Amino acid sequence: MRIGLVGFAGSGKTTVFNTLTGLNVPLGFGGEVHLGTVKVPDARIDTLSGMFKPKKTTFAEIVFSDIPGEHGAEQKGLSGKALQQIRDQDVLALVLRDFDNPGLDRAPDPMKDLDAFATECLFADLAMIERWLDKSRKEKKDPHDISNFEMMKATIEDDKPLRTIPANIIDRSKLTNFGFLSDRPLMVVLNRSETDAAKPMAPAMLKRLGELKAEGMVLSASVEAEIAAMDPADQKAFLDDLGLTESAASRFIRGTYHLLDLISFFTVGQDEVRAWPILRGTHAKQAAGKIHSDLERGFIRAEVITYDHFIADGSEQKAREVGHLKLEGKDYVVQDGDILHIRFNV
Ligand SMILES: Nc1nc2c(ncn2[C@@H]2O[C@H](COP(=O)(O)OP(=O)(O)OP(=O)(O)O)[C@@H](O)[C@H]2O)c(=O)[nH]1
Ligand SMILES: [Mg+2]
């Protein structure tokens, strides 16, 4: 999964990026796009790995891109270059500045920045939709596609992002080549000063996020950077002092999993214990295809043990004896924490 950190110059993207990835990229305006990969923490994988002692343990991964804002672009919006980089991401994490930045001459106004970003995305999408409509009407393309695009245009003209259109109304598989910005899942990160780190979001902001169908979280990137540099024992005490229960990195990852409706299934063995992220609602045969295309092609059945049963029983053998190992067909909907073993034949 690719997550792009976006936002205006000086909003704290690079600071947030360092916090999430554990890297230490120098701060300062502008510069290159930075990439960083993190493992999605999952205590269940730690436990399974402890039981199997496999040669290899593989967590789900997220690749973060820190996409610099353009200095002085706060009023002008995002540059064409930034828009292009943004299109390549699966999820957008918009970092909003809610602290005084001495390098900028503007007081923080996260609501205004959120609206500016949302509008920017709508404009970019509208331009693409209009161009497509002009061309397709001339070429007498499929009337069904044309009416879909007209509906999308009306949505944007109504000041609503495309992501507010329900999945059963448009066929999104036809939209993948367009890379519509307002259709990307959006995570809004409100970057606060140290003193406001644990204060909840203002109701007006929550309401706006609801309208945009976006997920939101509050953090103080500079506090998180301090926490990340401490040893684990001190981290807990420091978080408690601030009234926080969990580091921003794990809250962020949980939030994006929720936003994308992702779950994980597991494969286990002496060679590898591994987590596989999938969309909720994925069927067993498709899930098998994540592991290898042969497993999807030659799919026969999935042997399924829930994580909780596995832990209670202590072994695959025991789970089998007590009837906790279920044989499921290709249409079985894989559940979070299922341990799968795919029977296949190619
Ligand atoms: N007080 C405070 N300062 C912060 C916080 N987060 C970032 N800063 C400061 O704000 C300045 C800009 O932070 P960056 O992370 O470099 O901002 P950026 O969004 O990456 O900026 P560009 O790369 O130019 O787009 C730095 O001096 C940071 O130390 C925060 O949570 N609180
Ligand atoms: Mg930066």
Describe this structure in words.
- The chain is of the alpha/beta class and 346 residues long.
- It has 2 domains: 2-42 and 59-259, Rossmann fold (3-Layer(aba) Sandwich), CATH 3.40.50.300; 281-344, Beta-grasp domain (Ubiquitin-like (UB roll)).
- The chain is 40% helix and 21% strand.
- The chain has 13 helices and 12 strands.
- It has helices at residues 13-21, 43-52, 80-87, 110-138, 143-157, 203-212, 221-228, 232-242, 248-260, 284-291, 293-297, 307-313, 316-321, and strands at residues 2-6, 34-39, 56-58, 61-66, 91-98, 186-192, 215-219, 262-267, 272-279, 299-306, 326-328, 338-344.
- The chain has a 6-stranded mixed sheet, sandwiched between helices. A 3-stranded mixed sheet has the order 3-9-8, sandwiched between helices.
- Helix 1 packs parallel to helix 7 (221-228) and helix 4 (110-138) packs antiparallel against helix 5.
- It is flat and about 65 Å long.
- The two termini are 29 Å apart.
- The mean pLDDT is 90.
- Bound molecules: guanosine-5'-triphosphate and magnesium ion (MG).
